[in-house]
């Protein structure tokens, strides 16, 4: 792991004085756990797969076996990975805010459950989870942690095919989840955008929402994103290196 970049003094003060913090994470925070991001040029998932071929309801209709096999591979990969120091730092941040009467909301676009495994308790999963699979016939949904699928697609007790409980392109986000995220961002005085390219809507619109709510907007990312001009602080670094220092500032 590279050296933790020193945080700008103004940012440490902003974290220390914040009373309502919202953090949104993307695939980048899990890169340090060995899970490929989506859009990093060489290593990203979409560098090898076309999202419209795998991450849409139409793709599932067309080839349920291929789509569910791909999601099951990602589910098993996520289960083999462990949370990194960035995930742990956000769980610490949540606990410290709770202990000091401050509000902390963790919003994630990720579907790997690493935040929860690191100890984060209140996680808004905008795009669902690889661990939840839903029957397309009777709607029964269940956690499938550690389960070995016998068939692709996996079958429900009713005989119906199961699909992954993720939000595909062209599908709307869970209403309560996105509403909770929008409320937390509208009220926050510090917004952390961590490990996301900001390419996917409506999640990425939360960055603009934070700017509009006069929050201090911070980006943690080794590479600048399209939101660079909106930021109060851009910390060029990996989540696993930067976030522990941020958590220590609370
Ligand atoms: C919807 C689950 C109604 C599945 C995912 C408005 C404008 C344009 C398009 C649209 C729009 N509104 C809707 C759309 C269409 C579409 C969309 O946004 N398309 C984009 C791609 C153009 N959105 C939807 O369809 C959404 N539904 O809006 O419904 C509707 C529908 C149609 C039309 C209108 C309205 C549903 C979107 C949800 C899709 N599901 N995931 C799965 O996982 O397979 S999205 C997928 O992308 C993941 O969840 C991922 O998290 C997410 C966002 O990507 P990032 O997390 O940002 O990852 P990325 O690789 O891009 O970036 C990683 C970053 O990390 C980089 O910046 C890198 O520098 C950085 N990094 C690398 N290493 C580190 C690091 N950072 C820190 N530390 C490190 N070590
Ligand atoms: Zn069923």
Molecular structure report:
Helix 6 (85-99) packs parallel to helix 10 and helix 8 runs parallel beside helix 9 (205-212). Helix 9 (205-212) links the parallel strand 7 (190-194) and strand 8 (216-220). The protein has 250 residues and is an alpha/beta fold. The chain has a 6-stranded parallel β-sheet, sandwiched between helices. Strands 5-4-6 form a 3-stranded antiparallel β-sheet. The mean pLDDT is 94. Helix content is 36%, strand content 18%. It binds ligand BV8 and zinc ion. Residues 135, 137-138, 140, 156, 158, 160 line the site of zinc ion (ZN).
Q: Tally the beta strands.
A: 9
- Report how far the terminal alpha carbons are from each other: 23 Å
Radius of gyration computed on alpha carbons: 18 Å
Low-confidence stretches: none
Mean pLDDT: 94
Helical residues, percent: 25-40%
Strand line-up across the major sheet: 3-2-1-7-8-9
What structural class is derived from the secondary structure elements?
A: alpha/beta
Q: Count of helices?
A: 10
Bound molecules: ligand BV8, zinc ion
Order of helical and strand elements? HEHHHHHEHEEEEHEHEEH
Question: Which geometry do the CA atoms define?
Answer: elongated
Which key terms come to mind for this protein?
single chain; 250 residues; alpha/beta; six-stranded parallel beta sheet; three-stranded antiparallel beta sheet; 10 helices; 9 strands; 18% strand; binds ligand BV8; binds zinc ion
């Amino acid at each position: 792991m590279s050296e933790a970049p020193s945080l700008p003094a103004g940012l440490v003060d902003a974290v220390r004085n914040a009373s309502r913090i919202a953090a949104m994470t993307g695939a980048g925070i899990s890169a340090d756990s060995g899970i490929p991001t989506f859009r990093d040029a060489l290593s990203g998932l979409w560098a090898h797969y076309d999202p419209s071929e795998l991450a849409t309801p139409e793709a599932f209709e067309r080839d349920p076996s291929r789509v569910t096999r791909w999601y099951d591979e990602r589910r098993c990969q996520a289960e083999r990975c462990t949370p990194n120091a960035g995930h742990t730092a956000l769980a610490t941040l949540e606990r410290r805010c709770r202990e000091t009467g401050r509000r902390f909301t963790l919003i994630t676009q990720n579907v790997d459950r690493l935040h929860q495994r690191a100890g984060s308790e209140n996680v808004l999963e905008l795009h669902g989870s690889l661990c939840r699979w839903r029957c397309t016939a009777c709607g029964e949904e269940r956690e499938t942690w550690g389960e070995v699928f016998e068939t692709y697609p996996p079958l429900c007790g009713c005989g119906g095919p199961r699909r992954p409980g993720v939000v595909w392109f062209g599908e709307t986000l869970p209403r309560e989840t996105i509403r909770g995220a929008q409320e937390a961002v509208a009220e926050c005085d510090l917004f952390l955008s961590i490990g996301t390219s900001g390419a996917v809507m409506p999640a990425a619109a939360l960055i603009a929402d934070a700017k509009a709510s006069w929050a201090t907007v911070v980006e943690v990312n080794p590479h600048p994103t399209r939101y660079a001009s909106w930021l109060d602080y851009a910390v060029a670094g990996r989540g696993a290196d930067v976030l522990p220092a941020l958590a220590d500032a609370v």
